Amino acid sequence: MKQTPDVTLNFQHIFHQFEHCVDLVHRTFPEIHTDILYFPNLISKIAFSSMILEPFANIQLQEVDELFKQSQFVEVFHSKEAVVGVLEGKAAIFNQGKVFLIDIYGPKDRNIEQSGTETVITGPHDSFGESVSTNLSLIRRRLKSSHLKVIEYSVGEVTKSKIYILYIDGLANMNFVKELEHRIKIIEIDAVNEGGVLAQLIEDKPNSIFPQYLRTERPDSAVSKLVDGRIIMLVENSPTAISAPSSFFEFFSSPDDYYQRWTLGTALRLLRFLALLITITFTALYVSVTTYHYEMIPESLLMTLVESRNRVPFPPVYEALLMETMIELLREAGARLPTKIAQTIGIVGGIVIGQAAVQAGLTSNVLIIAVASSAIASFVIPSYVMSASLRLMRFGLIIMAGIWGNLGLIMGVALIIIHISGLTSLGAPYLIPVAPMKGTDWKDIFIRAPFSQLKNRPYQTKSPNQVRQKIRK
Amino acid sequence: MSRLLAAIIMMCMLTGCGTEQRILEDLGMIQTASYDLEENNKLRVTINMPVSATDSTIKKMLLTAVTDSSKEARLLFSNQTELTVVSGQVRNTLFGLDLAKAGIHRHVDTLLRDTSMSLGVKVTIINGKAGELLSKNYKQHSETGQYINRMLEKRGSGNGIMPSSLYQFTRDYHDDGIDPIAPIVKDTGEDAEMDGIALFQDDRYMMKIPAKKALIFTLFKRNLKQGEIIIHLENKKNPKDIVMLSNIMSKRKVKVHHLANNRFKVDISASIRGSVLEYTGNKDLVKKEQRHKIEEEISQYISSQGEQMIKDMQKNKVDSLGIGQYVRNSLSYAEWKSLNWRNVYPQVEVNCHAKVLIKNYGKYS
C-alpha cells in the first residue's frame, strides 16, 4: 500500500524536534545530498561505520537510489515514526525528500553476570541483565522452539518502555495471555522502569502484603516457568522477569531443588517451609509465652528464661519489637551501603549491639536467639520479595501476641491464611494446590518428587497440554 | 475492606477473653507443693518456688501457711511475696502420711479444678511430714523439690516405683474395680529415698509395698519394658545365692474364672524375660537344664512373693492391681452393680504365675 507522504516529513521539522538535545549528532554528506541524524550514545560504532560511513563515502551520486533499495534502509512516511526511530537508536537518513531509518542500535551493556539475589550452588549462573535483547537471547538459546511466542507492548507515556510477553504456544493457556494483554493495555502511567513496577501495575490485589507474581532474575528459572505453561514478562532495562500466574508455594522453591537429587531437593523444600513457620511465628511465640503462657515452658528451660528476662526493664512485646526493628535497621543498612562497609555493619550490628544489648540489660539473650533465628529463617526463602513480606508480617504477629497471647498469635495466622486463600494471581487461585485442593500437585510443592513422578504440568496453569512426560518405569 | 474492619472489631472484642498479663519474671512459680495434716483438721501447706536473684543465682523461696484449704493458702502466699504466686509450673505434690491416711481426694480435686495445672503433676506420698522434707536442704543434691521430682522421674533405675500423676490417681479413684497407688518417699537424713508404693483404698492410704518388692508388684500390675531385681534364691544347700535379673521385659495377663456362689478365681500370669547380670550360686548358666532350673526357682520366688502381696492387699481390702476391672469386664453391668466388690474382693482366690526366661547371662561364664 502506497502511503501518502507526511508534509512534516522533512529534515528541518524533525531536527527541530530535537532542539536542545546536545547529544544528537547531525552529519552531512554533501556529495550525495544526504543528512543523517542519530544519538551516538545509542548506536554501535562498528555498525555505524560499516553500514553508513563506508558505503556513503565510496558512493557516486547516481548510485544513491540503488543503495537505498537495500533492505536495511527502511523508508518511513511519518515524521513521528522518524523521531521514534531516532530515539530507539536508529539513524535517520534524509535524502532528496525521502527519509530512511537504519537500525544500528548497540549501546554499552552490562555483561551477563551472576545473579545477585538468586544464587544456586549447582546449575547455570548467568542471570538477566538490563538489556532486553540479551535477556530474550538468554531465553531463546535455552528454548529452541518456534512455539515460543513473543508479544511486544510499549508502556509508559514518557519512557515508552518496551514490554515483552513470552509464552509457549500450546502449553500456555490463551485465556491467561489475553487477560495479561488486557491488563497491560489499560496501564496509563508516565514511567515503567522496572519489572517490579509492572508487576504491581497488573496485580489482582495491589493492597495485599503478598507478592502475587513470582519474579526471577534467572533465565533457567524463567524457562522452566514457560515450560510449565506460565507466561513470562520482560521489561526493557530491567533484569527482572515476571512469571504469571504464580502460586504462594512457588515462592519457596529454588532451581537448586531440581538440579540436585530428589531426596536432597525434598529435604530443602521441607526446610524452607519450616523456615516459613519460624520466621513468622518464633519471636511472636517468645512474646506470648513470656507474657502470658508461662505454663508452656519446660522445667529445664524455665529458670534460664527467667534469669535472662530478669534484668530487662520492658515487657516482652516492646523488647521484641525493639530487637526486630534493630535487625531490620541492620538489614536495610547492609542493603544500602557499599559491600565493603556492609561487612563492617554486620560486625558492628551483629556482635557489638547483640552482645552489648544483653549486657546492658536491654534485651534477654533468649530473645536475641529468637530474633536472629527468625531473621536467618527469612533469608532461607528464595524469593526476596516474599521474604520481605513475611518479615513485615512478623511485626503484626508480635503485636498481636503481645496483646492477646497465643490467642492473638493464632488469630493472626488465621487472618493471614484467610487472606491468602482469597488471593488470586492473574485470576488463578493463589493458594493452589492446597485451596482449591489438588493432591497430585503436592509432590512438586511440599516435596520434590523424583522426575518419574512429576508427570503433569501444574494445575494452576490450566495448560492445554497437561502431560509433561511419559517415562515408563 | 468492610470484612477486614469487622475482623478487627471482633478481635478487639475478644480482648475480654485474654487473661491478665503474667510476665515471666514477675511470677512466683510453685514448683512443688506439700500438704500436711495439722491439729484441728487444719492443713499446713508448704510450697517452694525457684526464684532468680538479680545476681543471676537461683535461689528457692519457701513459703508456709496453715489454713483450711489449699487455695486459701495461695492467697496467703501472695501476701508474703512481691511475686504473683501461680500454679502453672507445679511438677510435684507431696502429701504427708497423716494426711494420706485421712484421705487426699479433697485436695487432689482442688488441684484438678485449676485449669493452669497440668494433669501430669505427680502425686507423691511422704513417709513423715511432707513440709519438713521439702524445707530440708540436701547438701549432696540439687534443690529439694527438683531433686525429689527428678528422682521420681528417672525411669532408668527400673525399681518398679512409677510416678503417679494427678490424672492416673483420680482416674483410678473414680474407676470401679481399681484403687489408686502413689510412690512413697522418705527422708533418710543425708538423702531422700524412694520408700515404696503406697496403696490406697479409695483415697485413704492403707498399706505400703516396700521398695524391695515394688518390682514384683509392678510385674503383676502392668507390662514392663525395663526393670531390675535382685532375687535371693531359697536354696537348701546355699541360702545366700543371689540372682540379679536386669533388662526385664514382662507381659502380664489376667484370667477370671467364675465359681459357684458368686465367687471368683483369678489367674495373673507374668511372662518375664531378662538377662542375668549377677549370679553367685554354683549352677552353670551355660547348661540348658541348669539354667532352666534357675528360671524355675526365680519363677517360684516371684509367684510366691506376688501371692503373699495379694493376700496382704486382700486383708486390707485394697485392689491396687485392678483385679476388679477384669472381673467387671467378665460380668454384665447389672451383675457388677449388684456385686459389692469391696466385700467380695478379699474372698477371691488369686493365683500368680510367673514364667521367667533368661535371655542371656553375660559375656563369660
- Main sheet specs of chain A: 5 strands, antiparallel
Shape of chain A: elongated
User: Largest interface: which pair?
Assistant: A-B, 26 and 27 residues
Q: How do the helices and strands follow one another from N- to C-terminus of chain B?
A: HEEEEHEEHHEHHEHEEEHEEEHHHHE
- Rounded mean pLDDT score of chain B: 88
Q: Which regions of chain B have little confidence, pLDDT < 50, spanning 5+ residues?
A: none
Please identify the oligomeric state. heterodimer
Describe the structure concisely.
The complex is a heterodimer of chains A (473) and B (365). Chain A is α+β, with helices and mostly antiparallel strands.
List key phrases describing it:
heterodimer, A: alpha+beta, five-stranded antiparallel sheet, B: 365 residues, 2 domains, nine-stranded mixed sheet, four-stranded mixed sheet, globular
Describe the secondary structure blueprint for this structure:
The complex is a heterodimer of chains A (473) and B (365).
Chain A: H1 11-17, E1 25-29, E2 34-38, H2 45-57, H3 64-68, E3 74-76, H4 79-87, E4 90-95, E5 98-103, H5 132-140, E6 148-155, E7 161-168, H6 174-185, H7 195-201, E8 214-216, H8 219-227, E9 231-235, E10 241-244, H9 255-259, H10 262-291, H11 299-310, H12 316-336, H13 339-359, H14 365-380, H15 384-404, H16 406-422, E11 424-425, E12 428-429
Antiparallel strand pairs in A: 1-2, 2-4, 3-5, 4-5, 6-7, 7-9, 8-10, 9-10, 11-12
Chain B: H1 2-13, E1 27-29, E2 32-37, E3 43-52, E4 58-67, H2 70-80, E5 84-86, E6 92-96, H3 97-102, H4 105-113, E7 122-127, H5 130-135, H6 144-153, E8 164-165, H7 166-174, E9 181-187, E10 192-201, E11 204-210, H8 214-221, E12 229-232, E13 242-259, E14 263-279, H9 288-316, H10 323-329, H11 333-338, H12 341-344, E15 349-360
Parallel strand pairs in B: 1-5, 2-6, 6-7, 7-9, 14-15
Antiparallel strand pairs in B: 2-3, 3-4, 7-8, 9-10, 10-11, 12-13, 13-14
